[in-house]
Design a protein that fits this description.
globular; disordered N terminus; single chain; 4 helices; alpha+beta
Length: 107
């Protein structure tokens, strides 16, 4: 059953958990989590990848953040993280979602 077909059968409050769980449970996402050891959580309309399990320093300070807009709505961490890793170690990726629809807005 595709996500679009199943969404029409669900109550609105179920849409988020279904779309997020499908994305988190995808084989590509699981492979990324195994490779990096980073956690991935869904909290308050955000998907949060990180921080690294072996980070022994304080979190990066203010001004160390980068906002990236126009991220395709079907683009998840398994595609974004390898691109970001080319530039250095990642502390955290916050993926902002349109809460009721499970659509990604940016990171």
């Amino acid at each position: 059953m595709s996500v679009k077909k199943s969404i029409t059968l669900l109550k609105p409050e179920s849409i988020i958990s279904m779309s997020v769980s499908i994305a988190i449970e995808s084989e590509e996402i699981q492979a990324l989590l195994r490779r990096t050891g980073y956690p991935l959580k869904q909290e308050n309309g955000q998907r949060r990848y990180g921080p690294p399990p072996s980070w022994n320093c304080p979190p990066p300070g203010r001004g160390c953040e980068v906002f990236i807009g126009k991220v395709p709505r079907d683009c998840f961490e398994n595609e974004l993280v390898p691109i970001f890793e080319r530039f250095g170690r990642i502390y955290e990726v916050d993926h902002i979602m349109l809460v009721l629809l499970g659509i990604m807005l940016g990171c």
